[in-house]
Amino acid sequence: MNSLQPIQNILACPACRGGLQIEKHAITCINCSQVYPLHENIPQFAVYESDKADLNDVAEISKNNYEQRYEDFEKARNYNLKYDRKPLKLLSTKREYQILEHLLGRQKHCATMLEIPCGGGRISPQLAAATDLLIQADVGLGQILYGMTKEKLKIPQIWMTASAFQIPLCNDSVDAAVCIRLSHHLPTSKQREDLLAELLRVARRYVVMTFFDYHSIKNILRRLRHSRPKLTMTLSQVSSIAARHAAKLAACPRLSIIGSGHRYALMVKSHRS
Asked: Which domains does the chain have, with CATH numbers?
C-alpha cells in the first residue's frame, strides 16, 4: 500500500504550488483545481497541463525521451535487468554505491529524502541507509510499477510519478534530494540549470546530482573523434548555480577517471547544518 499520509503536509501542486486535497481516486489542487489521477494509489503528478510554456517544453522533452519508453511495465523491467546482468553495468553500480555511501555518510541522517528519477530502484537501498523515509518519483509509471515489485526496503517508501522540473513538494520540504543520471540527457544548459534549481528548491539540507563533466577525459576523447558530444556541465557551472541558490559544492567525485565522464556533486545548503 502506497500511503501518502506521512507527506501530505508537504505535497504541493506542480503546476501552481498550491495546496492539495487527497481524495479516494484523485488528488485535486485547492488553488487551481488541477486534478491528478491515482493509479493503484500512485499519484500521477507528471500528467497535467500548465500555463508555464517553458517548463512544459522541458516536461515534453522528458516525456518523449523517457516516459513513452518506460510507461510500460515490461519495457521498464527489461531496462532494469540490464543493470543486474551486464558485467560493466554491475561494476558501474558497485562504484556508484561506494560514491553514494561516501557522500551521504558525510551528512547527518535524514528524516525524509527524495529520489528523482528513481527508475526501478537500482540505488534505492543505498539511499535508504541515510534516511528514515524515501520518496521515490519518476516520470515513467512503468519504472514505478517495476520498482514496487522489488524487495521492500527497511524504511517506509512513497511512490509517485513526477517531473524533476516541477516537483510536487513545498520549498525546503525534504532533508535531501538525489538525482542520478538525468542531467546529461537534457539538450540545453538552461534545462540543466533549471533541474538543479528545482532540486535545491525542495531540499532543506543538501542535494546530490550527477552530471557529465565537459573536461573529463572521456568527453575530450569524444571531441577528438568527432563523436556526438555528451550534454555536459563544468565544475564551475555547477558550483555557480549552487551558490545562486544558497548552496556550496562540497564534493564532486568521479565515477571513473578514464572510463566515464559522470561526476557526483554534493551541494550543501549554507543555511542548514
From this structure: 5-269 (3.40.50.150)
